[in-house]
Amino acid sequence: MSWEPLILTFKLALVTTLILFVVSLPLAHWLAYSKSRIKPVIETLVSMPLVLPPTVLGFYFLIAFSPNNSFGEWLQEVVGVQLVFSFPGLVLASLIYSLPFMVHPIQSGLAGVPGSLRDAAFVMGKSRFQTLIKVLLPTIKPSLLTGLVLSFAHTVGEFGVVLMIGGNIPGKTKVASIAIYDEVEALNYGTANFYSLILFGCTFFILLMVYLINGGYLKKLGR
Amino acid sequence: MMQIRIQKNLEGPSGPMLLDLDLNIEKGQFLTLYGPSGAGKTSTLQMISGLMRPDHGTIYFDGQPWVDISKNIHIKPQLRKVGYVFQDYALFPNMTVKQNLVFALSKNSSSKSIMDIMDIMEIGNLQSRKPDTLSGGQRQRVAIARALVQQPQLLLLDEPFAALDLKIRLRLQDYLGEVHRTYGLTTILISHDIGEIHKLSNRVVSLEQGKIAKQGTPSEVFVGHNLSGKFKFKGEVLHIEKNEVVYIVSVLIHNEVVKVIAQGSEIENLEIGDAVMVASKAFNPIIYKIQ
Question: Which structural domain, as residue segments, surrounds residue B177?
């Protein structure tokens, strides 16, 4: 029994969530306001991880990043990263896998803000960026919180992609969900139960906080 | 000061519609756009402010080209420095009243003007409140104040008082008239309220299906509409009182309270707060100069 898989899981989820937040803001902003013809295609691609079996995603990552083909080789030789069976590879796969969980709440939050708020900021001489930071994001705080938490929780819960591209290397790619599978296969039910209980408790607590905050229950208690 | 010649294809309520305008606006003018919904009034304001791009045409402001589609000129709304009061007020919900005004302030101007404007609009006591705790009339005052903080030369108002009840509307019209004069603004207002138009504006442009149907002073445009020589005023019932065999109804017309004698049958379905028309048919009214 070791804390390593749990620490690795939360480290992966944290890194993924932070990078996703930065990546998803411009993407969601574009999706919410663009009238471009290629928008449906981009929307489809963003939503694909929702329906695609994680193993499909993992399989293609494995093929693409394998040092046995030219792209993987180029990555390893020139860029100096090995994405297969490594932590950076896990992060990249998790980014794609959890993308819709961050983009969708932010996109629908932005789409729900009355257009006149943006227009008002524009006629006051504020740029798109200033408008996003000062007006739009503070207005959609609940959507941001939902996006952050869902991405985090979803990354904690991933299994298929991680197993395909990361394998099962202790300390590097063996996250909690894989450790549980491993321990059950070895009939170590006690250890599996230890990991499972902690994940169960953590995800329950995180989601509960979202519903409490977005539902305004905490404010009511404070009164 | 401002020449507008624009064309834009719009989706009207009854299918596609071409908005086609040719307007010259003088400095200091208070112009009202009047007409049924879907006539292109809001689109006109959006094209003047730069929030919508016309298909063809030009807009010149003080000799500067804001729009010249044939030369591919379309100045961004950020650079036009237009004050715009939106129909839904568009106050930023994450900021207090004061923060809303400060946000509208351009980089190099002093915040002293904020205090003056808060005084004129009488919102100083609301400055640390969030918009969602304000009443409709208070929000509208903040919205107008916020547009003034930008120190615009041109103020655009999209049906600013439509959602407010009569008494507050009359107060706000006074505020608006006052700021128009105090700041020497050129103002374009969208309004459906003929009383409001008479009170505030010196020019009316009546739009129908994207075209200018009529324009001129309010009396010229609305002749035959409500200036039929009869006495006819819109008002609100404030109070109904029985006085022996008749009833005395107090009606608020603009900001005057008038008492009208009514029969029992006339007040049967009248309630306090009802909008009513007070008219006189057979009498010749007396007219005399005041002061």
Answer: 2-221
